[in-house]
Amino acid sequence: MRLLTLNTHAWHEENQLEKISQLADFINKQQFDVIAMQEVNQLAAEEAVAVPDLGRYYNADPETVIRKNNYAYVLLQQLQYDYHWTWIPVHSASRRTLDEGLAILSKTPLTAHMHGHVSQLQDYNNSKTRKILAVQTEQAGQPLWLVNGHFGWWNDEIEPFRPQWDAAEQLLEPYQEQLMFFLGDFNNVAEIRGEGYDYMMKQIWHDTYTAAAVKDAGHTVVKSIAGWEGNARNLRIDYIYANRPVQVQSSHVALNGENGAVVSDHFGVMAVVDI
User: Fold this and answer.
1) Is residue 169 included in any domain, yes or no?
2) Is the residue at 123 inside a domain?
3) Cα dihedral sign for 77, 78, 81, 83?
4) CB burial of residue 30 (10 Å; 0-12, 13-18, 19+)
């Protein structure tokens, strides 16, 4: 199974339409089975997409409206494979002009879902409000769950990471009997001891990067970006986890200018897993 996670920084990028096309080209070439994207945005005032035009859209939230410039929807129009997909809004952004959310694309049908707040904040107009999105599907005849999340920082004064992770664990506990992959932007650096990465690894999770037979340096942020202002280090903060040991053929940084064009302020992570 081929997986990709990417914080898209949607509609904040220069030459955004070109970068969407570059991402589509990369996906078409790599033929991922699963794609998880964070910061998947749409203009809140844009016209809604008619339901018959949504393709293989899975409605995980009856109140969600997909608008014509929804980043995932625009991307899907350029993909060769007709993916099953879903998207939920998490909070508003850019002075309430954008809906920011989470999207999951899957080659196999989505059959069930779960989503919920992991932040104590549940104010849609506060950018520190956080959710996770989970969908059930099947790969190689095996049912499994795909989870997508975008978390806060370890030392955030308002919404620190640890209680968010505890909330995510509680939400996911009823589904842990099945194989589960958790993809996303976790905003916690793998190389820093005693913080978020170590806290996650004390739980049931297995990092596909460390398990991979073939891997690169793994860094997905290499400059100063929003949320990591002044950063001058190479950071590994985007991950693909499994809730049990799995055979991982490879883990590579994607969309970094060497393995695909740079399309966001984050690079992506791609993994090939045997299930």
Assistant:
1) no
2) no
3) negative
4) middle
Supply the CATH number for residue 187's domain: 3.60.10.10
- Per the domain annotation, does 241 fall within a domain? yes
Domain count, the chain: 1
Domain that holds residue 16: 2-107+182-274
d(CA 109, CA 163): 32
Each residue's pLDDT, cut to its tens digit, for the chain (275 residues) gives 999 999 999 998 999 999 999 999 999 999 999 999 999 999 999 999 999 999 999 999 999 999 999 999 999 999 999 999 999 999 999 889 999 999 999 999 999 999 999 999 999 999 999 999 999 999 989 999 999 999 999 999 999 999 999 999 999 999 999 999 999 999 999 999 999 999 999 999 999 999 999 999 999 988 676 777 777 688 999 999 999 999 999 999 999 999 999 999 999 999 999 99
Q: Is 232 contained in some domain?
A: yes
What pTM, to 2 d.p., does this model score?
0.97
Strand ranges for the chain from DSSP E: 2-7, 34-43, 56-57, 84-93, 98-106, 112-117, 131-139, 142-150, 179-185, 206-207, 212-215, 238-242, 247-254, 268-274
Residues 6+ apart with CB under 8 A from 42: 11, 66, 67, 69, 70, 71, 73, 98, 99, 101
